[in-house]
What we know:
By secondary structure, the chain is an alpha+beta fold. The protein has 2 domains: 2-64, no CATH class; 70-182, Winged helix-like DNA-binding domain superfamily/Winged helix DNA-binding domain (Arc Repressor Mutant, subunit A). Helix content is 54%, strand content 16%. The protein is built from 7 helices and 7 strands, in the order αββααββαβααββα. The protein has helices at residues 2-12, 40-64, 70-77, 100-116, 127-134, 138-150, 166-182, and strands at residues 23-29, 32-38, 81-83, 89-91, 125-126, 154-156, 161-164. The strands form 3 sheets. A 3-stranded antiparallel beta sheet has the order 5-7-6. A two-stranded antiparallel sheet has the order 1-2. A hairpin with a 2-residue loop joins strand 1 and strand 2. Helix 4 crosses helix 6 (138-150). It is elongated and about 75 Å long.
Amino acid sequence: xxxxxxxxxxxxxxxxxxxxxxxxxxxxxxxxxxxxxxxxxxxxxxxxxxxxxxxxxxxxxxxxxxxxxxxxxxxxxxxxxxxxxxxxxxxxxxxxxxxxxxxxxxxxxxxxxxxxxxxxxxxxxxxxxxxxxxxxxxxxxxxxxxxxxxxxxxxxxxxxxxxxxxxxxxxxxxxxxxxxxxxx
Length: 184
């Protein structure tokens, strides 16, 4: 590589003297960004060090971070949840065998999915919304929400509003969705 650089310098009359043009390189990888300005040698060292130091660390952190694969989730919800024209979620499978917590989490996942695809304005549900959708008593819904919050499946956002977490979506797809898919 150094020989190519020297050949380029000789061919084009570029020297390494002070004031000679420098390379400016910006590397972006996901949310990470780093910039280097210097000679070709410095730029190459910068690139190699970035790949050596940052990439493995970034991959490790990314693999430890729980995120929702929306496309995968929507594919799994295809025959289980649908949306009315104004974004109201409808559970297409019988829910009689779900626990109260499972039912609440199902509605929160449905609203989350609807919000992500632009069918619902909000990814949150209020206590009143959950009472309406589940048909359960206020004490039951409040108690189950408290448990779901403690289990990190749901988070409270604002006054009396709740939203499913990435961990809650994972729990839903692994534990509740199979129950719904098998329901007839």
